[in-house]
Amino acid sequence: MKKSIESSFRNTKRLDKLYKAFQEGNKAQIEEIIDDNTYNRELNKKIDAKDTEWIELKEEIVYRLSTPMENVVIKIFSNDYEYPLAEICGNIVATHLLQVVPFFVRTLDIGKRDDQVVLIMEYLHTDTESISLETPINMYNFFYQTAYALAELEKLCHLVHFDLRYDNIMIKMLPQPRDFFNNGIMCTFIVKIGDFGQCEMDFGKQRRLINPDVPREERYLKKWGLYPKTFSGYDFQYLISSLTPILDNLQGVSYYYIYGMLLDYLQPVQFTKAQDRPLIITSKLPKDILMYLKQVVSKTL
């Protein structure tokens, strides 16, 4: 098998330091590591190299950096907003978990450019539209991998993503089918979860990191739903609801029996009309959903 070339942007030393500071719940240390000019000089040489092409992906915030050797993604955080601690920590956690499971977008470095925090990530050009959910095994693998990733986030720091829409998940296609979980079910793709801008998690041993970007005021309730401050099955429920209009436009939701089984399993649930955000949140946690997929849904394939 051809070995993939490691990105020149990958800064394992800085990321290891950031994960240790995250474990300790040390915000000041995280900021100090990101501000470290020793690392940032090297990072900015690569970002500003003459042969690096900038391709805008999202409104002067997210770009693809294309070099003769590789493509990566850069996200730039404006100083006009609050320090993006939650998003930084979400990416640190997800990248750390890649040592256990492959279901997250890899963060390559987090540093400073022109006094702005920048996040460097692997570039993935394939999204969820590249897989056919009309095939039950594809839908099963999509949900199983996602639930597995969410269960790992729960186990490590009770992280809730809060924006896990169907169109917010990237896909990495495999060169050949693989049995990830030794269950006899072959898969042709890997789910890649990223975009942790609204996430919340345990920060250090005692404190819950509350994200100021999450709208919790009463006036937002009808549109944005309910955002719990403790860990819940919110993410999987929101993923299911974001799929509803897509499946309805394809074959109609009744055609997708695995979707129906999971929605029934999550009950009681309720969603806002405007955004399909959870209003009544399922009591089922990712580990419960994973077990249901493994013990019940897999037998229907």
Would you kindly provide a written description of the structure presented here, covering whatever features stand out?
The chain is of the alpha+beta class and 301 residues long. The chain has 2 domains: 12-122, Phosphorylase Kinase, domain 1 (2-Layer Sandwich), CATH 3.30.200; 128-300, Transferase(Phosphotransferase), domain 1 (Orthogonal Bundle), CATH 1.10.510. 36% of the residues lie in helices and 20% in strands. The strands form 4 sheets. A 5-stranded antiparallel beta sheet has the order 1-2-3-5-4, sandwiched between helices. A two-stranded antiparallel sheet has the order 6-7. The longest helix has 22 residues, at 136-157.
State the gist of this model.
The protein has 301 residues and is of the alpha+beta class. The protein is 36% helix and 20% strand.
Show unreliable segments.
none
Look up the CATH topology of the largest domain: Transferase(Phosphotransferase), domain 1
What is the strand content?
Answer: 15-25%
Indicate the CATH class of the largest domain. Mainly Alpha
**From the helix content, strand content and strand pairing, which structural class follows?**
alpha+beta
> Average pLDDT, to the nearest integer?
94
Amount of helix: 25-40%
Number of contiguous helices = 9
The overall number of domains is 2
Total number of beta strands: 11
What sequence of helices (H) and strands (E) makes up the elements? HHHEEEHEEHEEEEHHHEEH
Shape: globular
Record the strand order, biggest sheet: 1-2-3-5-4
Specify Rg, calculated over alpha carbons.
20 Å
Chain oligomer state? single chain
Main beta sheet: 5 strands, antiparallel
The second-level CATH architecture of the largest domain is: Orthogonal Bundle
- How far the N terminus sits from the C terminus, by CA atoms, comes to 30 Å
